[in-house]
Structures are given as structure tokens and as C-alpha cells.
Design brief:
488 residues; Rossmann fold; 7-stranded antiparallel sheet; binds adenosine monophosphate
């Protein structure tokens, strides 16, 4: 087993226990690590801060992890060759604010009583701090601040014998959203939380099985999409094939609607719907609800593009690439400080003056979070000579933070939590601003409307209706951790 480590003396140097990420596991292929690296490339949008792969060759585990993008860490043949074996589990980490250190990079590996276990996790546990405190009081020594490590300790402490039973036992103690992929010396195990908040799909490549966050990671290696892992389902893959277990009670599913709006790649199919189609339908609905008399529909690239196409088609207004995105800089939202985020927005987008000058335009983006992007873009488009700048947003106002694995700032920093739409419009400097309605969003998702008694999706970021208990948040333990991370 080869590991590269950077030891930090502050155990709380990552200020959140969030894991917003992409996962990829493969079992039964001689090129497991190379395929895992390709899978991570396809999932790069789900996390750009760090990447890791752990493989197993029948005798030993091998690991390579590093800060930065997949290409920064997995482009050398030597590294891929060192990750021997037919099974591998891989992870892309999404940045949260605060310092991130290598020991917080997944997959996380542990040598347990009954053998090694490597785990990659996408989601966020809502009682991780509470559990962590209990575990520490009982003598557990944590190596990282990841909530995934809480899972490892719970597995280690379980009185069950088999690793799958120990994992199920552990997951009965946690609350939150999780899609997990684990590799042991003999098996690959996949688990999705009972509400099915985060995605997890099953694929096949010849005889090999794949478990990954999105179908685009299957496409990149030519694997066939088999099905979504069901909410609350546990799949165990070993030499004898795949076994599906249902050890958890499953309430009605609440898949994250924001995966469809923004987070997933548009060429993925999630929960039987093409993400691209959904986004176009959202754009169409947005145009029906919020028409405007303009000369051009301009997407805020890339996140607003499919919705802008739908908007333009519905409205019968020309679609124009009035903003050009520089693809060689990362996502602005992920930059750790407000200062850098500002700089990032300037680096990322440029107005296409030839398309804009003298025109009345409507800009379409997927969401407004802090308002940084919209403010910059509106100003930039005005400076390029637009005579009117209207803004249409392909999601309802983001009024609440996500606790289930999409990194959003605290409520105080959410523009829509602080201001009315009219005030927001003034803040971003647009001539008009409107959002798709909540019911309209559900219509675009193929529903009649939002079922208020039993919403079909998790839409907590727009409604504050959190389907899974926010144990740490309500008890203040998440704050406790943030304060510790700041050294207070
Ligand atoms: P802001 O500039 O803070 O208003 O953020 C809005 C922009 O960030 C939009 O253009 C979105 O495409 C993007 N965005 C929204 N939510 C997220 C997220 N959770 N992670 C990264 N980017 C996001």
C-alpha cells in the first residue's frame, strides 16, 4: 500500500464536514484504476479540489491521492500502473471554504478487524459532528475531519461479523444524504440513503460492474448503463455477481432537484430523465411564466445554456452566445475567498460585444446564490453596449442552505434569503429579474405540480422543507466545529 501524506497539527483545519463529490467504483476489470481515472475525469465538475483512487489486487490495497484536478494527479502511466488490481474506488472532492488538506482527501482507507476497507462518499451526514463527539468520548482517534471517517469508526465499532452487515449497522446510526461506494479485499459495496438524495448509478463493462455518481462516467469508458441504485438499496458485488439488499426503511424518495438544475452534467441521465432535457424544459417553462420583449436570449455559460435554449425556443427569440466562457479557469463558486471569487468571475466570462451592442437582451442562468456572478455579468453586458439587460433564473430563489451535500453558503449570505426579488434586481443592476416558480419547476420535471404534502424531490434550498433531520445544525454542533476550525 502506498500513501502520500501531509500531516497537519490542527484536526479541524477543514471548516465543514461536507463532502460534495463524485464517486466511481469498479469491480472485475484488469484495468480498474485506469478506468477509474477516466471516470473521475467525467465527474470533474462534481469536485475539483482533490482526487483519489484506491485499488485492490487480491492481496494488497494501493492508494494515490492528491490535491487538484484529476489530470494533475492521474496523468502519469507510472501512477496508474502502481494502482494494481481488478477493483478500484475513486473520488473527486468538491471544495468547501477553509483549508483542505491531503488527509481529508478520499477514498478513505481503514484496516479493520476483518480486513481493509476503502470508502468514497458523496453527500453530507447531518449528525456527523454529534456522532464524532460520542466516538471521541469513547476513545476513537480521528485522522481527518471528514464525515466519511465517522462512518469508518462506526463500521469498526460494529459488533456484526460480516463487513456488509457492519456497514449497514453503521448507516443505521447516521442521518443525512449519502451515496457510498466501498471496496474490500473481496467485494465492492454500494449504498444510497433511504431518501435517495444524491445519485448513484450502476453500469457494466463486459463482466465488470461499475457504481458511480452519474451516467457520464459510464459513457467515458464505454460502459452500459444498467439502472439507478434505488433509495435505501445496498448492492454487494463479488465473484458471484450482484446481490441487492433493502435493509433500510424507505420513505418516499426525495431526489435532489438541484442535481437536475445545476450540479449534474447535462449529458447524464438521472432518475430516468436526461438532465439536458430537464434543463431545456425548465427554460421553456421560465419563458411561459416570465416573458420579456427583447432581441436576444443569452445564456450565462455553461450552467445557463440548456435553459436558455429552451427559453429562446419557447419565446421565439434568437439565441445568441453573447457571453464567452474561458474554459481554462475553474468554477468561480468554488474559489475559497470572496476576493478570489470576484477575480474568478472576471477571469471566467467575457462579453461578446459584436452580439450585444445596441440590443435588448435577456440573460438566463440556473441560479443566484450570493449574487456575485449575476452582478458582474449584468455590468459586463451593459458595458458591452446592451440597451436593456433582463435576467431570468431557471430555479426558484435560493433561500435556504443545503445540508445534504451541495455546498451553499450560510443563509445570511444567500441573496434571496435577505432581499425581495425587487431588491435583488436592484442589487444585480438588471432592468428586470424573475425566477421560475416552484410549481413551474415541478411542471418542467414532468409533474402536475409540487405535491405539498409529499414533495416529489428534495427542494429544501428553495423551500426550507428539509426531509432529513438536521441534527448537528439544530444542536449547534456544526457551528462548534466551524469555530474550532477558525482556532477560536
Ligand atoms: P453567485 O455568484 O454566488 O450568485 O452563484 C451563482 C452561480 O454559481 C450560478 O451561475 C451557478 O451556476 C453557480 N452555482 C450555483 N450553485 C452552486 C454550487 N452549489 N456550487 C457551485 N456553483 C454553484
Amino acid at each position: 500500500m502506498t500513501e502520500q501524506h501531509e500531516i497537519s497539527t490542527n484536526p479541524y483545519d477543514d471548516d465543514k464536514l461536507h463532502e460534495e463529490c463524485g464517486v466511481f467504483g469498479i469491480y472485475g476489470h484488469p484495468e480498474a484504476a485506469a478506468l477509474a481515472a477516466l471516470g473521475l475525469h467525467a465527474l470533474q465538475h462534481r469536485g475539483q479540489e482533490a482526487a483519489g483512487i484506491v485499488s485492490h489486487d487480491g492481496r494488497h490495497f494501493h492508494s494515490h491521492k492528491g490535491m487538484g484536478k484529476v489530470g494533475d494527479n492521474f496523468s502519469s502511466e507510472e501512477v496508474i500502473k502502481s494502482l494494481k488490481g481488478d477493483a478500484a474506488v475513486a473520488h473527486n472532492r468538491y471544495a468547501t471554504t477553509g483549508g483542505t488538506v491531503l488527509r481529508n482527501v478520499q477514498p478513505i482507507f481503514a484496516d479493520l478487524a476483518n480486513g481493509g476497507l476503502a470508502v468514497a462518499h458523496n453527500g453530507n451526514l447531518t449528525n456527523a459532528s454529534t456522532l464524532r463527539r460520542q466516538l471521541v468520548a469513547e476513545g476513537s482517534i480521528f485522522q481527518s475531519t471528514m464525515d466519511t471517517e465517522v462512518i469508518i469508526h462506526l463500521v469498526a465499532n460494529s459488533k456484526k461479523i460480516k463487513v456488509v452487515d457492519r456497514m449497514v449497522d453503521a448507516m443505521h446510526k447516521v442521518t443525512g444524504a449519502y451515496s457510498l461506494v466501498a471496496v474490500t479485499s473481496k467485494k465492492m459495496i454500494g449504498m444510497r440513503d433511504p431518501f435517495g438524495v444524491r445519485p448513484l448509478v450502476l453500469g457494466k463493462l463486459d463482466k465488470a460492474y461499475i457504481l458511480t455518481s452519474e451516467t457520464c462516467a459510464l459513457d467515458i469508458i464505454g460502459a452500459e448503463f444498467v439502472r439507478d441504485i434505488k433509495p435505501g438499496e445496498v448492492v454487494v458485488i463479488d465473484e458471484s455477481g450482484l446481490t441487492s439488499l433493502s435493509p433500510f426503511e424507505t420513505p418516499p424518495a426525495r431526489f435532489c432537484i438541484f442535481e437536475h438544475i445545476y450540479f449534474a452534467r447535462p449529458d447524464s441521465v438521472l432518475e430516468n430523465r436526461s438532465v439536458y432535457d430537464v434543463r431545456k424544459d425548465i427554460g421553456r417553462q421560465l419563458a411561459i411564466e416570465n416573458p420579456v420583449d427583447v432581441d436576444a436570449v443569452i445564456p450565462v455559460p455553461d450552467s445557463g445554456t440548456p435553459a436558455a435554449i429552451g427559453y429562446a425556443e419557447q419565446a421565439g427569440i434568437p439565441f445568441e452566445l453573447g457571453i464567452i466562457r474561458n474554459h481554462y479557469v475553474g468554477r468561480t463558486f468554488i474559489e475559497p475567498t470572496d476576493q478570489i471569487r470576484h477575480l474568478g468571475v472576471k477571469l471566467k466570462h467575457n462579453a461578446n460585444r459584436a452580439m450585444i451592442e445596441g440590443k435588448r437582451v435577456v440573460l438566463v442562468d440556473d441560479s443566484i446564490v450570493r449574487g456575485t456572478t449575476s452582478t458582474k455579468i449584468v455590468q459586463m453586458v451593459r458595458e458591452a453596449g446592451a440597451t436593456e439587460v433582463h435576467m431570468r433564473i431557471a430555479s426558484p430563489p435560493t433561500t435556504h442552505s443545503c445540508f445534504y451535500g451541495v455546498d451553499t453558503p450560510s443563509r445570511q449570505k444567500l441573496l434571496a434569503a435577505q432581499y425581495s426579488i425587487e431588491e435583488m434586481c436592484k442589487f444585480i443592476g438588471a432592468d428586470s429579474l424573475s425566477f421560475i416558480s416552484l410549481d413551474g419547476l415541478y411542471v418542467a420535471m414532468g409533474e402536475k405540480n409540487r405535491n405539498t404534502d409529499l414533495p416529489q424531490y428534495c427542494d429544501a434550498c428553495f423551500t426550507g422543507d428539509y426531509p432529513i433531520g438536521l441534527v448537528d445544525h439544530e444542536s449547534g454542533s456544526d457551528q462548534e466545529l466551524t469555530l474550532l476550525s477558525e482556532g477560536s
